[in-house]
Amino acid sequence: MIAWPTGVAIHLAVAPVDFRKAFDGLCIEIVEALDRDPLSGELFVFRNRAGDKLKALYWDGQGFVMIYKRLEKGRFKWLQQVDGDAEGEVRLSRSQWQALFEGIDWRRLESPRKCLATATR
């Protein structure tokens, strides 16, 4: 797993994309569908329609880095489309991104509850 710099925003595209698209095609998706700048240094994550492939695109300051992963069994856990609305994106935490990349259901990750303990004598 590539270690991303701390603070890098990670955007998950809700709608599946045509995986014949490479760097330029995904940049167009980022601009048109997500209304974002592909040169921002943020990480953009896409999936194919079947849900078994994932592509991520990242500008590192010198060029684009693309990550492509195919699951041999199963599908990546994704958001359900609500009333046919497949536009937009969701921001992921680093933990959610790592879980998604490993094929784990990132939607179930929760921060532990804060303990409201007090010191007693």
UniProtKB/TrEMBL annotation:
PANTHER family: BLR8292 PROTEIN, PTHR36455. Pfam families: TnpB_IS66 (PF05717). This is Transposase.
